[in-house]
Amino acid sequence: MANGKSMTVAEMLGFFLDPATPIRMDAFDGSHFGPADASLHLKVTSPNCIYQLLAHPNEIGAVRAYVLGDLDVEGIDYANPYPVLRALFSLASYARRPSPVDAARLAAAVLSHGVRRPPVPQTEGPSKFARIKEGLLPHTERADSKTVSFHYDMSNEFYADFLGPSMTYTCAVFEDEHMSLEDAQANKLRLILDKLGLRPGERLLDIGCGWGSMVITAARRGIKALGVTLSKEQAAWANEWIAREGLQDLAEVRVQDYREVPEHDFDGICSIGMMEHVGVKNYQSYFEEMYRLLKPMGRLLNHQITIAHDKPNGKPGQDEFLDRYIFPDGDLGAPGFIESCIHDAGFNVVHQENLRQHYALTLHHWCENLSDNWDDAVKQVGFERAKVWGLYMAACALNFEIDGIQIHQFLAVKPDRVGHPDGKWYPLRPWWRA
């Protein structure tokens, strides 16, 4: 540390990295680690970085230090830090764990400067324990309303800065890597509606409808579309969009929990990027509710992020960064478990596909858009939150690329036990254009 103490920041870093690591670190105390010509150049600008990592020797400590500027990277694009994350990932083999003796020496060196409670970014939300203490039990209607508002009710203009004109906050579907984001999002909406096979005059329920892109697209086909969301900001945007298009007779978006929708006998239901908010323990009841809302031979299209590998003992989980900064109470399940829940709710699962690479491409487009509109994004939500969003989207892109997470579409049919030997139940083979 500073003031002639026995251990420098560079020496501390040496406990965690092999001396041959091709990385450069310059610290506030004048110490340096690694070659000056390394392509990745870190800067520890404040003692608070050390205290953050000591208090939380996990991703939360690193995220706090980064968001507050105590840990920085030379030349980084805060809107799109993907190149830095990719470079750090490539250096994982150089990491090492300090021995208990070295860890004790390191802690003693830091604490010799006194106990310090480092600051917390204003953008950080309460921990899961703190939310429960406030009576916000995960995935109750009250808690879901609060957590959805935390994520979405910031600024519609901020989301427009990176989502683009489609305002579609889910994975696009690309014909190839050169397809534009707008065309790929339109392609995704087209694919979902084609899979559902709805005709003009039939009824669609879009659960977690976002800013209304699916509702609008369906109404343009003559489908009667109802969208529900827990975000007031989203609903206001969507209904203004519906009015501009003159689609009020066919489309509506409500601020309503899916468990409170009074209508039923829908011809189709889509759930696009909604299940991440439901909670794995509630999957079965969620799909049972979808089954109840559909008419016989109605179709369900569920599009959701999944984990590539089951958690220990089959338990779902979410890292603390996402829980504190992005999606409180967010939860991911494995694709096999999800398909079993759909089946056990009474559906016939007729098709599923993994669109993992498509989400990585989508996120790269979003990061590029955020970079292009950085000044306005900071104006809308502040520097800290804009910085957090760049980190979140870049990290997700990397996670999709390395197969840590995936995204699946499941198409299911509510069976009619009459049988329909004439083939009107559903065609023998997939009927949509891929």
Account of the 3D structure:
- The chain has 434 residues and is of the alpha/beta class.
- The protein has two domains: 9-111, no CATH class; 141-413, 3-Layer(aba) Sandwich (Rossmann fold).
- The protein contains 17 helices and eleven strands.
- The protein has a seven-stranded mixed β-sheet. A four-stranded mixed β-sheet has the order 2-1-3-4.
- α12 links the parallel β8 (266-272) and β9.
- The longest helix is centred in the C-terminal third of the chain and has 19 residues, at 383-401.
- It is elongated and about 80 Å long.
Number of domains: 2
CATH fold title of the largest domain: Rossmann fold
Q: List the secondary-structure elements in sequence, H or E.
A: HEEEHHEHHHHHHEHEHEEHEHHEHHHE
Mean pLDDT over all positions? 91
The coarse silhouette is elongated
Helix content: 40-55%
Number of strands: 11
Please identify the structural class as seen in this structure.
alpha/beta
| Largest pleated sheet | 7 strands, mixed
End-to-end Cα distance, whole Å, is 59 Å
CATH class of the largest domain: Alpha Beta
Q: Counting H and I runs of at least 4 residues, what is the number of helices? A: 17
Pfam families: CMAS
Protein name: Cyclopropane-fatty-acyl-phospholipid synthase
InterPro entries: CFA/CMAS, CMAS, SAM-dependent_MTases_sf
Active site: 396
What attributes characterize this protein structure?
about 425 residues, alpha/beta, Rossmann fold, 2 domains, 7-stranded mixed β-sheet, 4-stranded mixed β-sheet, 11 strands, elongated
